[in-house]
Amino acid sequence: MAASPLRLSFAAAATPEARRAARTLGARYGHVPPAQADIVIALGGDGLMLQTLHRALKRGTPIYGMNLGTVGFLMNQYRPAGLLARLKRAREVRLNPLRMEATDTRGRAHDAIAINEVSLLRATRQTARIAITVDRKVRLPELHCDGALVATPAGSTAYNLSAHGPILPLGAGLLALTPINAFRPRRWRGALLPRTATVRFDVLDPVKRPVAAAADSVEVANVSRIVVTEARDIALTLLFDPEHDLEERILKEQFAP
User: pTM of the entire structure?
Assistant: First the structure.
């Protein structure tokens, strides 16, 4: 069969089902390396989608996902037929990830990009003690907790939601700052911040109460300071079928029983 007018690249999860689908679709529509593709087709679940988005950070190639995983919140329904027509009708969703600048207890700097969230987690049985500063003003001098996170709207339905954080519509221009099992102040449930905010976490007792930080799947152990900002110089493009629009999915999550 002749190759598609669109240059497609197929990225598959490690499951046999996803790999079979990649071979089948590649034979039907043609396959090129990701660097030469007009659109990358991600076959798997949300984890595979995040990996594919991270690989596309510098190229900015649009990503269209088809669900062959478990949840598939960021994916479209898997159907091998009619792919070209679906791509032509697909709606674009533009996302800006987060940039994490972490300093460990040895003074070493670590930078990473997060599409879903930047999270801090205690590394031992003892609770973490963290100070939170927003735009150079200390908002919480001492939070006793298992951790805390900053989530993008796209990531607000993932770990953030499990930590009882708010779901953010894509166009809200907000970030979610959410504690993970806050012990003191016990009633603090987090905050909604403008997307332009700079959030700084200072680990108050990093030796006795060590904390690890993670930007999606990139983890840094024994951190002492973490600064989180929106990476407005990076724009990612996801493609969705009109009936599976991401904005609509996020809205539906807010009314889920």
Answer: 0.89
